[in-house]
Automatic annotation (TrEMBL):
Native organism: Plantactinospora alkalitolerans
Location of region: Disordered: 1-25
Comp. bias regions, Basic and acidic residues: 1-15
Domain 4Fe-4S ferredoxin-type: 28-58, 136-167, 168-197
TM helices/strands, residue ranges: 302-321
InterPro entries: 4Fe4S_Fe-S-bd, 4Fe4S_Fe_S_CS, FDH_Electron_Transfer_Unit, Formate_DH_Fe-S_su
Keywords: 4Fe-4S, Iron, Iron-sulfur, Membrane, Metal-binding, Repeat, Transmembrane, Transmembrane helix
Main location: other
Protein name, entry field: 4Fe-4S dicluster domain-containing protein
Organism domain of life: Bacteria
Record keyword Disulfide bond present: no
Amino acid sequence: MALDLREATGGERDPATAGGYAEPPERVGFFTDTSVCIGCKACEVACKEWNAVPEDGLLFTGMSYDNTGSLGADSWRHVAFIEQPRRLGRQETHLAPTELPPDLLRSAGGRTAVSLGLPASAPPDGHVAAAADMDFRWLMSSDVCKHCTHAACLDVCPTGALFRTEFGTVVVQEDVCNGCGYCVPACPYGVIDKRPSNGLVSKCTLCYDRLSVGQEPACAKSCPTDSIQFGELAELRERAAGRVRDLHDAGVTSARLYGADPQDGVGGAGAFFLLLDEPEVYGLPPDPVVTTRDLPAMWRRAGLAAVGLLVALAAVTIPGARR
């Protein structure tokens, strides 16, 4: 079934319909606007709490504030912190979609600052001056499973542990997984991972249990800036295109969408992103391709080779065949 998905979704059928659902609901997914991500990690915490994802070490890399490093079996959400050397005067502005509400500005206008008693910070010698190595900008992004339209993990799973839901998402059934690990190298994004404690694979389910009762995923629910937006995929793509236009009009010409194109190598992602730099900067492949794309042709060629070998053996072994 999975190998037919690429052909089936080339027309009007969506992944859920191609997966056997007669009347599925609209496909849903994530649009992550990295331009308003503040790196608070609320999504990571909410994901772990709701899905009972085990603690993954909380070890800092020593190179940034990133304490998860990458997606994995115990990190279904990963907030990347990317430092880029860039003079502060050249930082891009106009990233916030709106100004502060007028009523909030009016209410705060007559207030005076109050000391909270927090300790001040200064160099040991007390001398404060500009530091040359402080000219940088942060790029922050909450990464997650892409819930691909053409999901290679589905193609290679021998037990049916990975399945397509009626919402078009891809979910792992840990009680069906046999730990073979075929799906791990099949993922073009390096999302799927095996959990060391039990040898089974685990990844984002897009909170399938919450979707089934009409609730949004925990990560999107907890995001304070709406960097992670959940909804029907078609509407999210329209919203994202409008956001890119607004940023371009504001002078942020580096804004671009990643994973939103249904014609890309995975047929479009169910979780796509607005980026402010090249995908490689965020640790994303620039041109992902479903890794099982050539499997049908490979099997056909293997079959032809096998037939040719059988004909050759018959010609050698059957008496009179060489006349």
